[in-house]
Design goal:
Elements: H1 8-22, H2 31-44, H3 50-59, H4 61-72, H5 82-96, E1 102-107, H6 113-124, E2 131-137, H7 140-148, E3 150-152, H8 156-165, E4 176-179, E5 182-185, H9 187-190, E6 193-197, E7 209-214, H10 223-236, E8 237-245, E9 260-262, E10 269-272
Parallel strand pairs: 1-2, 1-7, 2-6, 7-8
Antiparallel strand pairs: 3-5, 4-5, 8-10, 9-10
Length: 275
Amino acid sequence: MSKNLISEQEVNVLLNDVWERYGYDFTEYAPASINRRVNHLFQVDRFPSFAEYRYRIISDPGYAMRFVEEITVSVTEMFRDPSFYQALRTHVLPVLATYPSIRIWHAGCSTGEEVYSVAILLKEAGLLQKSVIYATDINVSVLEKGRKGMFRLSQMQQYSRNYMEAGGREDFSSYYTANYEYAKFRGDLGEKIIFSPHNLVTDGSFNEFQLIICRNVLIYFNKKLQDRVLTLFSDSLEQLGFLALGSKETLSFTSVTRKFRQLDNREKIWRKMQL
């Protein structure tokens, strides 16, 4: 594997190419993370030079999508950070239960493990039938995986532990059937989830929600882009709606700080205040 790395300036050239040619704007992503991911692909695919890497991205749309996927891929698991789901179960779902219908936006959903986790919470609270979860991501290939509702069977033991720590009330295996190396999750969960492409950088609001979940996405954005996305979320939330972020993310010192009140300092869940 080549030890040569491409420079930050060359990475910016590639990002501009992808923006101009394919419409994906990564120019305001946090530089350290994006440089690492662009260089990882450069090395894994053994390009002899920056020029050949760039030519391949410009001339081959299929490879350009591989480049996009490398940048946007995220680590996810069911009931990740169980205490977060416990807080959703305890503090948020009882409020959502008072609405005649429930609209949830899960932005940056990746392959959908956390979306199915929320669907299970809604099911156990008796709220799934009146709910719709819009699960969005910039990466079309991960959405396709989410639509199938099939996750590796080898992960189920860990997911079951997470589920129990999150206050799970059922036998976790009742939510899926084993299918060779995969666990296929129940259709009554999947039919309440709409997987759809959405680009947080360039796309606008498409509904009004009572809960928006976007965990471990903003950490990849610079401050300006974080503010833009948080404004989008604020504009997309009903009054008194909830916004949930990842464990290393915050609304403090952002453009929307004054519009929200944090529910619990340990869990990153905020409520939009009544104006």
